[in-house]
Structures are given as structure tokens and as C-alpha cells.
Design goal:
Length: 457
């Protein structure tokens, strides 16, 4: 196992380093130490200088300092490696894919790349919204019979990027609700847009965000009767980090709730292909959803495209603002202004993903990670832990009642050299849990589970 599997979060790690109120030499030394250890790829580190510009820091970014999760994990992992340089560290933390992209998909990308060296095959800027063939293939593969058409689909460089573009679309004057715990990009992008108040340390929440608590008591579905009305509702199913999947009945309640309140749901279905029961794979399976929802998704966790970068967002033409203007028209404007289209090579890969051979190859990759998930679930079950998720998602949500997530994270790292993710990093509702990711080579997952058994037997 390579001990270098942490870099995906590092782009934001640099912002964590720079995100401190005042840049100090301790942070500087820490970043250098991490660099020397070969663990952390930092982008440019500023030299201390007496000169400052006259530009004030964006005060919304300054609010973020409390909220960085993966950079903090990277920092702790770096410190651990300095302490135990020979440790065989296994990362089941960040949630990055590890298995090779199936050949049928990379061959298509290679072919497109080679064609770019020919007069006939060369192409420059493409349509910002993506190639029609791919938009049509996404519509017919993921939304067949649901009334989502090729023109409703915007092909992108990934769901995370679309989440931020959606925030630009909504602007700073909207209110938003989020599952607690949830994927950190929703809250952080909301803070950056200026939709929130300051971070409130006592409750570990940002002001002006409605945190919808999701825990075992409510089967990880929020109590909508006590949820405040907001303009936007971010909802992810299967959920990262809990692995919980909303049922058809629950999503029907959510759509009705949004309709009553006049809200827009941003539905993140980045793990939908991991669903193996009859839970909906798209919000658009729910009657009426096209009038209240946008769906964002990704090839990242299906085809190992975390580095390739390809995703999409479906904005139905039925979705209208209060004044009757179509949301899709504005999203198109945002797309054309902020984005110049996904890489043509990646789009060739996306098309190959959706061919019969590609779909079957993606199912194999997903099946492999699902076997990993089962190994992790069985391990924690055998040790007497309460375990959630893991059925329809590559994440296992393990309960350590009464304990701090960061303490458990530290205990596991110190005693087993395995990196997990502390649940509280996904919101206050994650306190007392850790997330174990099933993205890993089989031998590493087996070895990590052997170490968990030794620690908690
Ligand atoms: C719920 C969720 N949405 C979106 C993303 C990001 O997807 P992408 O790689 O397409 O940006 C992730 C990545 O972990 C995720 O967990």
C-alpha cells in the first residue's frame, strides 16, 4: 500500500493553511515539514513579507476557518508519519477511488486524445453544456422514462464544481438547509457565497443554515415537521457520510415539503449506482420533483473518474423561479460564463462509460467496492459495534456512543495506522461516529480490518 494516498484533499489543504486568521511561522514550518516527508503536496507557500496589498480579505472566506475536515486529516496523517516513518499507513479516510479505470473506458479516451493530433480529429472549444451525444446518453441511461431530456443535462467537470456553480446561480440572498451530517461542500460553498452567519463554536454550526439532523433515531431522514422553511435544500442520497438512502416514501415527503414551501431541492446522487435495493436512484422518480428539484451527479465513484473529472447536473425546464423565469436558462448563463465545457477527452470516456460494455465494467468496479464495504461492515458488526450505511453506499458509519469522533479517529490512527474520517467533520450531527471508506485495494481493506479486530477485540 502506498502511503501517499492523501493528496486529493490537498488543493483545499492549502486554503486551510492560508485560511488562518494570521499567517504564522508555525504553520509555515508545518507545511514545510509535510512537504519534506513527501506526504503533502502544497501549492505555493507565501513568503513572509512586510508588503501588503490594499485588498481586504473576503470576509466570507475568513468565516471558514473552523470548518476544514480533510486538510486536518491530512495534517494529522502527516504528523503521524513523522512520528512513525516506517508505519504502513492505510487510508480509508478521504473517499478517493483506488481501482484502475476499466480498459474499455480508457481506450476511448486514448483514441480521442490521439485523434486530436490529426486534422480530421482535432476539436477546440466545445459546447459549454457538453457534447449532445453524451447529454443524450446521460438522459437515457439515468433518467429513462422520467421526462429529463438531453437539453436538461449540463455536462461538467464534476459534481463538486457544479455545487459551487449552483451556489453562484442562487446568489448570496438565499437561505439553505442541509442534512447534518453531510458532504462538506454544501455548507462551505454556502459560507463562501455569503449566505450564512459566523461559525458558532458552542453549537458547531454556521448561523443562518438549517441543519437537518439525520441520525439512527430518525432513520437518517430529517424530521420535516420541525425543519424551517428555506429557499434551497441540499439533499444527498445515498448519503455521504452516513451511507443512508432515502426511501421512495421519504423522498415523496421531501418533494411535498419543498413544494409547500416553494423551495428548490439540490439532490446529489453521486452514489446512486451503489443502490442495490428499490430505493429511488434519482429524485425525478418522485412525481412532481421536476418542478422543485435539480440533480447533480458524477462519474467519479462509478468509473474511478475522481482524477479524470466528469459529472453532470440536470435542471428540468419545469423548474421556475417565483417570477416564472426558467432556472435552467440562468444555469445555462452561469455555465457559459464560468465554464468552458468538460474536456473532450473526458467526455469520450463518459460516452464509453455509458456503452453496454462500459456500464457492465462500471458495475464490476462498484461491485468490488461493495464487497469491500461488506468486509468492513462484518468486521465492525463482529466487534459488537452499531454500524450504519454500507448497503447502498461505499461508506460505513460506525457508532462510538459517548466518545468524541476526533478521539476515536486519533485512537485508530495511533494504534492501527489506519486513517478514517471523524464523523463530526461532516457536521455536529456526526459526533460520536467515524466514517470508514470502502475505497481501497482489497489487501489493504483486509489488513485494516485485521488491525481493527486487534484493537477492539
Ligand atoms: C456526495 C458527494 N457529492 C459530490 C462529490 C464530488 O464529486 P466530483 O468528484 O464529481 O466532484 C463527492 C465526492 O466525494 C461526494 O461525496
Amino acid at each position: 500500500m502506498s502511503s501517499m494516498q492523501l493528496s486529493p484533499s490537498i488543493s483545499s489543504s492549502s486554503s486551510a493553511i492560508f485560511g488562518q486568521k494570521s499567517f504564522n511561522s508555525r504553520t509555515f514550518r508545518a507545511s514545510i515539514a509535510l512537504k519534506r516527508s513527501g506526504v503533502c503536496k502544497c501549492v505555493a507557500t507565501p513568503e513572509q513579507t512586510a508588503y501588503t496589498t490594499k485588498v481586504a480579505r473576503n470576509e466570507n472566506l475568513a468565516k471558514l476557518q473552523a470548518g476544514y475536515l480533510f486538510p486536518e486529516i491530512a495534517r494529522r496523517r502527516g504528523a503521524h508519519l513523522l512520528k512513525y516513518p516506517d508505519a504502513q499507513v492505510i487510508s480509508l479516510g478521504i473517499g478517493d477511488t483506488t481501482e484502475p479505470i476499466p480498459d474499455v473506458i480508457t481506450s476511448a479516451m486514448a483514441e480521442r486524445a490521439r485523434a486530436l493530433s490529426t486534422l480530421e480529429g482535432y476539436s477546440g472549444y466545445g459546447a459549454e453544456q457538453g457534447e449532445n451525444k453524451l447529454r443524450a446518453a446521460i438522459a437515457s441511461t439515468f433518467y429513462k422514462g422520467l421526462g429529463i431530456e438531453e437539453t436538461d443535462v449540463f455536462v461538467s467537470d464534476g459534481a463538486k464544481c457544479d455545487i459551487t456553480r449552483l451556489q453562484i446561480l442562487f446568489g448570496s440572498n438565499v437561505t439553505m438547509a442541509v442534512q447534518d451530517p453531510s458532504y462538506p461542500a454544501y455548507v462551505d460553498s454556502s459560507v463562501i457565497m455569503g449566505q450564512t452567519g459566523q461559525f458558532q463554536k458552542d453549537v458547531e454550526k454556521f448561523g443562518n443554515i438549517e441543519y437537518m439532523r439525520c441520525n439512527p433515531e430518525n432513520r437518517f431522514f430529517p424530521d420535516l415537521s420541525s425543519t424551517a422553511k428555506t429557499d434551497i435544500i441540499f439533499f444527498c442520497s445515498p448519503n455521504n457520510p452516513t451511507g443512508a438512502t432515502a426511501t421512495r416514501e421519504q423522498l415523496t415527503q421531501l418533494v411535498q415539503f419543498a413544494k409547500r414551501n416553494g423551495s428548490i431541492i439540490v439532490y446529489d446522487s453521486a452514489y446512486a449506482m451503489y443502490i442495490s435495493d428499490d430505493s429511488p436512484r434519482s429524485i425525478f422518480e418522485i412525481p412532481g420533483a421536476k418542478e422543485v428539484a435539480i440533480e447533480t451527479s458524477s462519474f467519479s465513484k462509478y468509473a474511478g473518474f475522481t482524477g479524470v473529472r466528469l459529472g453532470w447536473t440536470a435542471v428540468p425546464k419545469e423548474l421556475l423561479y417565483s417570477g416564472g423565469f426558467p432556472v435552467a436558462k440562468d444555469f445555462n448563463r452561469i455555465f457559459c460564463t464560468c465554464f468552458n465545457g468538460a474536456s473532450n477527452i473526458c467526455q469520450a470516456g463518459g460516452l464509453a462509460c455509458l456503452s453496454p460494455e462500459g456500464l457492465s465494467a462500471m458495475q464490476d468496479v462498484i461491485g468490488f467496492y461493495k464487497e469491500n464495504t461488506q468486509i468492513i461492515v462484518d468486521t465492525f458488526n463482529s466487534l459488537g459495534f452499531k454500524v450504519y450505511g454500507g448497503k447502498n453506499a461505499p461508506y460505513v458509519w460506525v457508532h462510538f456512543p459517548g466518545r468524541s469522533s476526533w478521539d476515536v479517529f486519533a485512537e485508530i490512527l495511533e494504534k492501527t495506522h489506519v486513517v478514517t474520517t471523524p464523523g463530526s467533520g461532516f457536521g455536529p450531527g456526526g459526533e460520536g461516529f467515524i466514517r470508514v471508506s470502502a475505497f481501497g485495494h482489497r489487501e489493504n481493506v483486509l489488513e485494516a480490518c485485521r488491525r481493527f479486530k486487534q484493537l477492539y477485540k
